[in-house]
């Protein structure tokens, strides 16, 4: 007796001799016996049945009746496409354009998302998309329009793309309507283009396209072509965000955090930003870093901030790399590490972030970086380029490079030239230019002009300029000798925690010939300056404690300040400490000798 399986196989072989009968039997067996159905579809396809070839391609793409195998799917689609099968032509174009496995173009709006494939083959895709588009297939028309508007430069044809989007939209294809709306937004030669675009977006949104919801939300948020309505924007962003539209997730997250269009909801706002960041949106990661570094809606958390800044920076986000460098520089949420800070500043700077370029230059000038060689970093080139383009901050930084020999030979004359240009608006440049005039570097010495520039920067609140101008008043350089004016400038700088100004105030009160001797006040100012690491102030404070000036005589405190002054590199501190120790030793011997004599 013949087994049932053998009988089925015999029947399948007999039917396979006729492509039409093979496909019909395959369709009947499709659900109950997918493997047998696939074999019959293959037989029909090999016999020249284009529809069967298309179905085989679908089965291999979906993994139905066989393991999913996109390459095999493409081979069968090609067989059907070459026979004029329009759907196969669409599928083949989509495979070339978007990769696999989700290659179908439909209401999932893949035209407006990044391709899964690492290297989309636009040239192969355009061939098959055009063949299908010319038959009137609306999906293919939208795909062809996308290639002609967003593909490689050599394939682009904006006018043709506009027409194909229009044709696709006219057939009520959601993809076509969305593309046509975007194309209309870019056209200024069409009357009522904004209204037409909004109408197309509304139609596309009815089909559930997330990008349509997102664009309508952006219009409502900004009041573009419609009334400003943040509540409506929030609703539309929510629809798109729920459909995994990452740009909408960022917008929704920010609106929830800021309480725009509804109540403040920091937890959900953070959650939407996090979802977008996890999906690879560097802007979302940057926003999270800012959220946790600044605090506000949520408590500050520098460890979280560093994580998200790093995530965004590793994806190429310039501002995030700079922000991460700042955390390393300040030691917020991590150990302070100038070298690591410099590495992240360098990454952002090389990507064109001008703020990071300036931050890196300052860090290199301070000399706290050990892992980077100034000669390997074209800081001066960045700033020279910015300066020549009229950027006054760039002009100032380029002048500093020239004045300090950072990356270029020192050139005082050129430094003075660029400082003068930058000094029109940059306060630091005003101070530096004053210093160049005072020192006669790169131009003739001119104390009066130097004092004028110091005063300009000082009046803008720059502490270094306050101190420089105070010193000029004490010396009568470029301005009349005026101790009270000097004291006023030093006090202003001291309020900004300028240790040099504090030390100067201590000296003024120490020297009775300037404003009258006041050892108590002098000691107070020396103490404040010394606590901020001013070496000579520490030495003066040691002397005051040793001599009992401005307070009690405190030998142990004097020794401690002498040791601090030695560590800070104050001249004469080590010698005076040794003298103090010698006197203490001799005093101890003198105190002991009478007792021994007795």
TrEMBL record:
<dbReference type="InterPro" id="IPR050767">
    <property type="entry name" value="Sel1_AlgK"/>
</dbReference>
<protein>
    <submittedName>
        <fullName>Sel1 domain protein repeat-containing protein</fullName>
    </submittedName>
</protein>
<dbReference type="InterPro" id="IPR006597">
    <property type="entry name" value="Sel1-like"/>
</dbReference>
<dbReference type="Pfam" id="PF08238">
    <property type="entry name" value="Sel1"/>
</dbReference>
<dbReference type="InterPro" id="IPR011990">
    <property type="entry name" value="TPR-like_helical_dom_sf"/>
</dbReference>
């Amino acid at each position: 007796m013949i087994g049932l399986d053998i009988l089925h196989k015999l029947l399948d072989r007999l039917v396979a001799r006729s492509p039409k009968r093979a496909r019909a039997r395959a369709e009947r067996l499709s659900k109950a016996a997918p493997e047998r159905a696939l074999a019959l579809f293959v037989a029909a396809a090999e016999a020249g049945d284009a529809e069967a070839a298309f179905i085989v391609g679908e089965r291999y793409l979906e993994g139905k009746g066989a393991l999913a195998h996109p390459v095999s799917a493409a081979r069968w689609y090609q067989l059907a496409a070459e026979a004029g099968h329009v759907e196969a032509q669409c599928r083949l174009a989509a495979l070339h354009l978007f990769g696999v496995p989700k290659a179908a173009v439909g209401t999932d709006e893949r035209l407006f998302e990044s391709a899964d494939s690492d290297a989309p083959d636009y040239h192969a895709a355009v061939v098959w998309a055009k063949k299908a588009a010319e038959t009137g297939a609306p999906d293919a028309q939208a795909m062809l329009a996308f290639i002609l508007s967003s593909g490689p430069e050599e394939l682009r044809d904006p006018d043709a793309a506009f027409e194909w989007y229009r044709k696709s939209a006219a057939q009520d294809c959601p993809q076509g309507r969305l593309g046509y709306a975007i194309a209309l937004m870019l056209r200024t030669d069409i009357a009522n283009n904004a209204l037409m675009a909004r109408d197309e977006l509304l139609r596309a949104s009815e089909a559930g396209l997330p990008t349509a919801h997102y664009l309508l939300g952006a219009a409502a948020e900004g009041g573009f072509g419609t009334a400003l309505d943040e509540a409506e924007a929030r609703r539309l962003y929510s629809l798109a965000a729920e459909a995994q539209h990452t740009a909408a997730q960022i917008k929704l997250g920010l609106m929830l955090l800021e309480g725009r269009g509804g109540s403040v909801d920091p937890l959900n706002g953070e959650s939407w930003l996090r979802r977008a960041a996890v999906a690879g949106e560097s802007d979302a990661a940057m926003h999270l870093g800012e959220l946790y570094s600044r605090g506000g809606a949520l408590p500050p958390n520098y460890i979280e901030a560093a994580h998200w800044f790093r995530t965004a920076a590793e994806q190429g986000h310039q501002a995030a790399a700079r922000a991460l460098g700042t955390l390393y520089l300040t030691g917020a949420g991590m150990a302070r590490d100038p070298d690591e800070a410099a590495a992240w500043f360098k990454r952002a700077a090389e990507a064109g972030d001008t703020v990071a370029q300036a931050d890196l230059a300052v860090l290199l000038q301070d000399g706290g970086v050990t892992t980077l060689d100034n000669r390997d970093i074209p800081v001066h080139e960045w700033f020279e380029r910015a300066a020549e383009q009229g950027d006054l901050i760039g002009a100032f930084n380029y002048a500093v490079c020239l004045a300090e020999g950072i990356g270029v030979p020192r050139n005082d004359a050129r430094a003075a030239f660029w400082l003068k240009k930058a000094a029109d608006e940059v306060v630091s440049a005003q101070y530096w230019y004053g210093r160049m005039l005072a020192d006669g570097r790169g131009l003739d010495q001119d104390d009066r002009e130097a004092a004028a520039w110091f005063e300009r920067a000082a009046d803008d609140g720059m502490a270094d300029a306050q101190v420089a101008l105070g010193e000029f008043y004490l010396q009568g350089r470029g301005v009349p000798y005026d101790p009270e004016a000097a004291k006023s400038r030093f006090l202003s700088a001291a309020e900004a925690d300028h240790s040099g100004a504090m030390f100067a105030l201590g000296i003024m009160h120490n020297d009775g010939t300037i404003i009258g001797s006041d050892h108590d006040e002098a000691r107070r100012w020396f103490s404040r300056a010394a606590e901020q690491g001013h070496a000579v102030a520490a030495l003066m404070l040691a002397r005051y404690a040793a001599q009992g000036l401005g307070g009690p005589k405190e030998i142990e405190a004097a020794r401690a300040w002498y040791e601090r002054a030695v560590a800070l590199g104050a001249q004469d501190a080590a010698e005076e400490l040794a003298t103090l120790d010698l006197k203490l030793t001799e005093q101890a011997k003198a105190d002991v000798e009478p007792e021994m004599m007795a």
